[in-house]
Specification:
Elements lengths: L22 H4 L2 H11 L6 H4 L9 H10 L6 H12 L8 H13 L4 H15 L4 H11 L4 H13 L3 H13 L6 H13 L3 H14 L5 H13 L3 H13 L6 H13 L3 H13 L6 H13 L3 H13 L6 H13 L3 H13 L6 H13 L3 H13 L6 H13 L3 H13 L6 H13 L3 H13 L6 H13 L3 H13 L6 H13 L3 H13 L6 H14 L5 H6 L7 H20 L1
Protein name: TPR-like protein
């Protein structure tokens, strides 16, 4: 029998004397105690388990906990402990603890929203001009932590510290770190949204130089921003930059610039761009034509607008509601309502659904030519199409009724608006007041004026003057002066027109002494009389004044332009009258 090769077991006392130390044996006892307290926090509150350690804990202890993590605590537990320390009045977190915690969350693929919240809090505490110090601290946490730096830049941008965000970005380039594309996009969006296209373009051109991939959509947004500010030349320069960065203008690029030129009335430039589109093989779309049609309508070139509409149809493009409405509105504004109605009928035949703007354009056109009956029919058609009249519809009808002298209907529409819960605005009130004043419904005009005030809308000088004029024409000048005082109490400064209205009222009543007192009052408050003022006064003196040679005074109307000349003329006439009476 062969002897056994099996080795006998080694007695315990003869076991190898060396065993590798566990992480707990090597860890700082304080860090171990903290870790154990965190692990047991669900059963024992930290404020109790760390009662004796808390007064001596520092930011260094927290950083050691993050770096060693002897019990391999999950990121959520460490985050909870971070917030626990944040709530302790004696503990002071530092930028390093904030950044280290955020980096730990990101590196362990924890929710980025927690890391983002942490950095936003850090940035808000640090304030403006803190970018260099926080960037330096972030590099201490991890020299290549691109995700942490990217989030730091985004946090600065989100809080409106754009200068710091740009400074952080430049520091990443200075340290030869990868360009944080997401942060660049976020920062660019902030700059575009801030209505500062010049600053946005400056930043965009800078990051393009760093290697940021160019996008035509970004150029288009910047062009749109410049156009909104009326800086069409800058928008065109932006357009010219597109091919320089290897991109190609799209139909949106052309449309944005064409729209900008048409809004400022430069139709030649707009049509020049349309030709350039075709040369580059970019086909105009419905928006292109609609913008050009609108530009032509704006200057009353309706024949050309109609030709452009027909060209659009010939090219196989299907006009939408906007294109039809633009043409309809153009015809209505120049008084060619029949042509507008024909376009409307064509729109219906094509199955293009008109909207509220379309119907309001027709109602406005019909009211302007005094065809209220047809305007009301259009409103009925609109309602059959499932559209309810809005503030614009009702205000247009009120204005039309007032201009035709149909005040009962106008006031009825006003009541209907109130019943339907549609608030009257300054345009509605002013239309009513204008009509009521013109037709000498003075009590209603004044009541409507005060309804306007009670609605929280301050009438302007023109609105007050309309009612004052209505009172004066009825001989109720005192009521006019009461409204003058009301105007002044509301901070409005009556101008020469308001004073002329009151002056005319006094002169018609023969109150020449009061008229002269009003003239002095005008001058005292810095309102300069005009030739109308002096003509009113001269006519008043001729009819009611104690003056000699009225024909001579009338011959001077239109020739008196200042107070001295007026006073001299009146005094001379009075002197002649007194001399004649003394003989």
């Amino acid at each position: 029998m062969r002897p056994s090769t099996r080795k006998p077991p080694i007695p315990a006392k003869l076991s190898p004397w060396f065993a590798p130390p566990s992480p707990l044996d090597q860890a700082d006892p304080i860090i171990v105690s903290i870790s154990q307290a965190i692990a047991n926090s669900s059963s024992t509150p930290l404020s109790h388990s760390l009662k004796h350690l808390l007064p001596s804990l520092t930011a260094s202890h927290f950083l050691s906990l993050l770096s060693s993590n002897p019990l391999s605590l999950p990121p959520s537990s460490l985050l909870s402990f971070f917030h626990f320390l944040l709530s302790r009045p004696l503990f002071r977190h530092t930028p390093l603890t904030f950044l280290s915690m955020a980096h730990h969350l990101l590196s362990h693929r924890h929710s980025s929203s927690d890391a983002n919240s942490m950095l936003r809090l850090l940035v808000s505490r640090s304030g403006r001009h803190s970018a260099p110090s926080l960037f330096s601290a972030a590099l201490q946490v991890s020299p290549s932590a691109s995700s942490l730096l990217s989030l730091l830049i985004t946090s600065y941008a989100d809080l409106g510290f754009v200068g710091d965000a740009i400074q952080c970005l430049r520091l990443t380039r200075k340290h030869s770190l990868p360009l944080p594309l997401r942060s660049c996009s976020s920062l660019l969006e902030h700059l575009v949204a801030s209505d500062s296209p010049a600053a946005a373009w400056s930043f965009y051109s800078e990051i393009l130089g760093y290697g940021f991939p160019p996008k035509v959509s970004t150029f288009n947004m910047l062009m749109h921003s410049f156009c909104k500010e009326g800086k069409i030349r800058d928008a065109h320069l932006m357009f010219d930059e597109i091919p320089k960065w290897g991109a190609r203008p799209t139909v949106v690029s052309f449309n944005t610039l064409i729209n900008g030129y048409c809004k400022i009335g430069d139709l030649d430039a707009g049509f020049g761009l349309k030709l350039r589109m075709l040369e580059l093989g970019v086909l105009p779309d419905v928006f292109t034509y609609s913008v050009l049609i609108k530009g032509l309508c704006k200057v009353g070139r309706m024949d050309d607008a109609n030709k452009m509409f027909e060209e659009m149809c010939e090219r196989g493009l299907v006009p939408n509601s906007i294109a039809f409405t633009t043409l309809i509105d153009g015809y209505c504004k120049v008084g060619k309502v029949e042509a507008g109605m024909e376009v409307f009928e064509r729109m219906m035949r094509r199955g293009v659904q008109p909207d509220l703007i379309t119907f309001n354009a027709l109602v406005n056109g019909l009211c302007k030519v005094g065809d209220l009956k047809e305007a009301k029919k259009v409103v009925e058609v609109m309602m059959r199409n499932g559209l309810e009249p809005d503030k614009v519809t009702y205000t247009t009808l009120i204005d039309g009724c007032c201009k035709e002298g149909d005040l009962e209907t106008a006031l009825g529409i006003k009541k209907k608006m109130i019943v339907e819960g549609i608030e009257l605005d300054d345009v509605t009130f002013t239309a009513l007041i204008s009509g009521l004043s013109r037709e000498a419904w003075v009590a209603d005009a004044e009541r409507t004026l005060h309804e306007m005030v009670n609605a929280g809308i301050v009438p302007d000088e023109v609105t007050y003057t309309m009612v004052i004029d209505a009172f004066c024409k009825k001989g109720e000048v005192n009521a006019g002066f009461e409204l003058l005082k009301e105007m002044q109490s509301k901070g409005l400064r009556p101008g020469v027109v308001t004073y002329n209205v009151l002056m005319n009222g006094l002169c018609k009543l023969g109150q020449m002494k009061n008229a002269n007192m009003l003239l002095n009052a005008m001058l005292n408050v810095g309102v300069v009389p005009d030739d109308v003022t002096y003509n009113i006064l001269l006519e008043g003196h001729c009819k009611h004044g104690d003056v000699e040679d009225c024909e001579k005074l009338r011959s001077e109307k239109g020739m008196i332009s200042d107070f001295a000349a007026y006073t001299s003329l009146i005094n001379e006439s009075l002197k002649k009258q007194r001399c004649k009476q003394s003989k």
